[in-house]
Amino acid sequence: MRQLIARGFQFLHPRDARGELAAVVGVRAHHTVIDVVRLHDADNAVATRMPADESNVLFPSRFSWRSRGSATAVLEELLELPDDRMT
């Protein structure tokens, strides 16, 4: 998480109707893309890279890269992406 913050990710902590944490969501817009990561729990994470003009960043209709799986695996893949372009 520290590496993502160092790269410019900003994090939100959406809550459900009961006020419980639903996920941790990180977003970073850079160059011509937006990277989004949603961490639901240790075994349920998804990260996506999409064009900067995508209108729905949580459920994009277009993306160039996506990974689902454990938080550790998804975060490692996200950190390995080239920083300056669509993949």
Explain the overall architecture:
With 87 residues, this protein is of the alpha+beta class. The protein is 17% helix and 37% strand. The chain has helices at 2-6, 71-80, and strands spanning 10-12, 24-30, 33-41, 44-51, 65-69. The chain has a five-stranded antiparallel β-sheet, covered by helices on one side. The protein is globular, with a radius of gyration of 13 Å. The model has no long low-confidence stretch (mean pLDDT 93).
Write the H/E string, N to C: HEEEEEH
Summarize the biggest pleated sheet. Answer: 5 strands, antiparallel
Strand content: 35-45%
Q: Which class best fits the helix and strand makeup? A: alpha+beta
**Residue windows where pLDDT falls under 50 for at least 5 positions:** none
Helix content: 10-25%
Number of helices: 2
Q: What does the radius of gyration come to?
A: 13 Å
Average pLDDT figure = 93
Structure keywords:
87 residues; alpha+beta; five-stranded antiparallel beta sheet; 17% helix; 37% strand; globular
Quick rundown:
This protein is an alpha+beta fold and 87 residues long. The chain has two helices and five strands; from the N terminus they run αβββββα. The protein has helices at 2-6, 71-80, and strands at residues 10-12, 24-30, 33-41, 44-51, 65-69.
SSE arrangement:
Layout: H1 2-6, E1 10-12, E2 24-30, E3 33-41, E4 44-51, E5 65-69, H2 71-80
Antiparallel strand pairs: 1-2, 2-3, 3-4, 4-5
